[in-house]
């Protein structure tokens, strides 16, 4: 993290969001100014412009999968690096203006990811409800006080302590074990040192659209013993049927098996975006078989060097 006199962190606001809870886990951010923004694009623009040192953004949910807006933004904004990841348990409440009952609810305002995680509950309780998307869970709640378009909103627990709203129902999430994964993104070129419990994030494109191309990309990791914890396709957007792949690989760029896999991927793919190597939030050590230990790769290179040298 760059040391400057004015260190600011951006997060998806307003106050009370899960993103703010994730930022609260960053030791370096404590006591520093925090800037609430309206969307991922604004958060990353803060980082690119230098307004903020880093931005906290949601990238994956255990129920709904990858956050497409974040994945697409990371693919289109150059020079960004993930420098840490943080996990936040996620649950929701349904809130409304005072005087509103659950039977009055016809239209619900909610962030699309939150809505997807509560949809089964809503369809069971209010089967004919409508949905208005919001830029954040707290923004959805605030909209109830600013307009009459929605009757209720999906929001984080405790929202009623900050705003004049009443809670109509608690624990409305369809999965009580839901967790959202957040990443801290900056412009630093410094890579955190390997810990043995690390993750490397990438975005890669296939060289062409043909049978077996995806398998060949995956083999760059499989043949080096690198496990992939996430792989998700996103449209490139230049023509129909063209996709890029968002990849999370277990390991650090300084691990011999990972660096060798990245070399193979770079030779294979016309466009590879390295998003960073950083410690895993769950601190679970990376597992791999002994034949992919660093010493094996080092010995193999020395063996080849000896052959080239006439030994």
Number of structural units classed as domains: 3
The overall strand count is 15
**CATH architecture heading of the largest domain:** 2-Layer Sandwich
Helix percent reads 25-40%
Mean pLDDT: 92
Radius of gyration: 22 Å
Distance between the termini: 46 Å
CATH top level of the largest domain?
Alpha Beta
Helix-and-strand structural type: alpha/beta
Structural key phrases:
311 residues, alpha/beta, D-Maltodextrin-Binding Protein, domain 2, Alpha-Beta Plaits, 3 domains, six-stranded mixed beta sheet, five-stranded mixed beta sheet, 8 helices, elongated, phenylalanine biosynthesis, Prephenate dehydratase, Preph_deHydtase, amino-acid biosynthesis
Topology of this protein?
Blueprint: E1 9-12, H1 18-23, E2 34-37, H2 40-49, E3 54-61, E4 65-66, H3 68-76, E5 81-89, E6 93-96, E7 107-110, H4 112-125, E8 130-133, H5 137-146, E9 152-155, E10 166-169, E11 179-186, E12 198-205, H6 213-222, E13 228-235, E14 243-250, H7 256-268, E15 272-279, H8 294-308
Parallel strand pairs: 1-2, 1-3, 7-8, 7-9
Antiparallel strand pairs: 3-4, 3-11, 5-11, 6-9, 6-10, 12-14, 12-15, 13-14
Helix pairs in contact: 6-7
Describe, in plain words, how this protein is organized in 3D.
The chain has 311 residues and is α/β, with parallel strands linked by helices. The chain folds into 3 domains: 1-89 and 179-189, 3-Layer(aba) Sandwich (D-Maltodextrin-Binding Protein, domain 2), CATH 3.40.190; 93-169, 3-Layer(aba) Sandwich (D-Maltodextrin-Binding Protein, domain 2); 191-311, ACT domain (Alpha-Beta Plaits, 2-Layer Sandwich), CATH 3.30.70. 28% of the residues lie in helices and 28% in strands. The protein has 8 helices and 15 strands. The strands form 3 sheets. Strands 1, 2, 3, 4, 5 and 11 form a 6-stranded mixed β-sheet that branches. A 5-stranded mixed β-sheet has the order 8-7-9-6-10, sandwiched between helices. Helix 6 packs antiparallel against helix 7 (256-268). The longest helix has 15 residues, at 294-308. The protein is elongated. Residues 1-5 have low confidence and may be disordered.
């Amino acid at each position: 993290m760059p040391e400057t006199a004015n260190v600011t962190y951006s997060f998806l606001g307003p106050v009370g969001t899960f993103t703010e809870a994730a930022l609260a886990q960053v030791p370096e951010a404590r006591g520093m100014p925090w800037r609430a923004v309206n969307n991922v694009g604004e958060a990353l623009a803060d980082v690119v412009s230098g307004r903020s040192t880093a931005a906290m953004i949601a990238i994956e949910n255990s129920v709904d999968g990858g956050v497409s807006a974040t994945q697409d933004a990371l693919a289109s904004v150059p020079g960004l690096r993930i420098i840490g990841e943080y996990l936040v348990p996620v649950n929701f409440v349904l809130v409304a203006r005072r005087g509103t009952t659950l039977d009055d609810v016809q239209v619900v305002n909610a962030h699309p990811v939150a809505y997807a995680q509560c949809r089964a509950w809503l369809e069971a309780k209010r089967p004919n409800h409508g949905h208005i998307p919001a830029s954040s869970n707290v923004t959805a709640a605030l909209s109830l006080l600013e307009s009459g378009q929605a009757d209720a909103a999906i929001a984080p627990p405790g929202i009623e302590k900050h705003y004049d709203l009443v809670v109509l129902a608690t624990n409305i999430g369809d999965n009580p074990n839901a967790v959202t994964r957040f990443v801290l993104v900056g412009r630093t070129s410094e890579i955190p040192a390997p810990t043995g419990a690390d993750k490397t994030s990438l975005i890669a494109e296939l060289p062409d659209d043909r049978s077996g191309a995806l398998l060949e990309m995956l083999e760059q990791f499989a043949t080096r013993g690198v496990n992939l914890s996430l792989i998700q396709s996103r449209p490139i957007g230049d023509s129909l049927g063209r996709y890029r792949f968002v990849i999370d690989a277990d390991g650090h760029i300084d691990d011999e098996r990972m660096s060798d896999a990245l070399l193979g991927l770079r030779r294979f793919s016309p466009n590879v975006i390295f998003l960073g190597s950083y410690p895993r939030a769950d601190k679970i050590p990376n597992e791999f078989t002994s034949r992919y230990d660093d010493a094996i790769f080092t010995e193999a290179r020395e063996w080849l060097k000896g052959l080239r040298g006439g030994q």
